[in-house]
Amino acid sequence: MRDCLFRIQNWSSCRDLERVHMESINELLNVQPVPCNEPGHIKLKEYAEEAKLLIQAIDSALMSFSKMFELESLYSRACDFPIYVKQIEKLSQKVSSAKAWLQSARKYIPDKCSAAIDVDVLYKLKLEISELQVELPERGLLLDLLRQAESCQAECNETLKTPSTLKNIETILQEWDDFPVKIPELMLLRQHRIGAVSWIARCNKILFNIHDREDQHAVVDELSCLVKDGASLRIQVDELPLIEIELKKARCRVKALKVIHALLCFQGYIWWWYVGICICVF
């Protein structure tokens, strides 16, 4: 017991001494009968009570949400305490895990992250900090970012369920244009918009001189392809009904050209027949 007290009382000034374990103190205090002529027994019991209070504080911190500075302060207190309590290992693990999470989370804070953030990373960080039960300012920032990501995802999903106009899609894309999180549904809307804009550009190119072209058969083919591609778009485009009308007109022009060609051929046949008659007569 005296050796135990000596190590406890002198550990602060001589850290080379091995700290006394709480289990060893409990064994000494549980010796029966209690030695009445041992003055160190009362002092050792006082140290044991301090150790129990420290253990309670650590257990409480491990079982509840705690601020980072509180955990670090408690860990520092446990490290400076002359009695070793095994709960310090779990506390050390919690502090280390919180620091590792903090280092990882700071990479994805929008102000410090130049690249787009994968939404799955946010869910992973949320799960980790929920299990750690540590209050950190970065936790609030990332949870807020995740809420925005979920809001964006929900809006995009709702938009993808039914055909939307190009104007509506562009409004949504403009709203989330600078959003730092990669949302698959948002990326899909961007692809749909690119497809619609490209299709409209093709329309404008064909419509530019559609009535002046001599190759109306090619015009019908091009317009038919446009109608087919326009019908497969996931975005409603105002130009599609116009292209369908122009396709009907182009088909009519092709039919008219066929009739004209047939008439010209017939007229040529009549002319040559007339010439033949005249030759025979004269």
Automatic annotation (TrEMBL):
Origin species: Rhizophora mucronata
Q: Which residues cross the membrane?
A: 256-274
Highest taxon listed in the record's lineage: Eukaryota
All copies of the Dilute domain together span 1-131
Supply the alphabetized keyword list: Membrane, Transmembrane, Transmembrane helix
Under which name does UniProt file this protein?
Uncharacterized protein LOC105645808 isoform X3
Pfam families the UniProt entry points to: PLU-1 (PF08429)
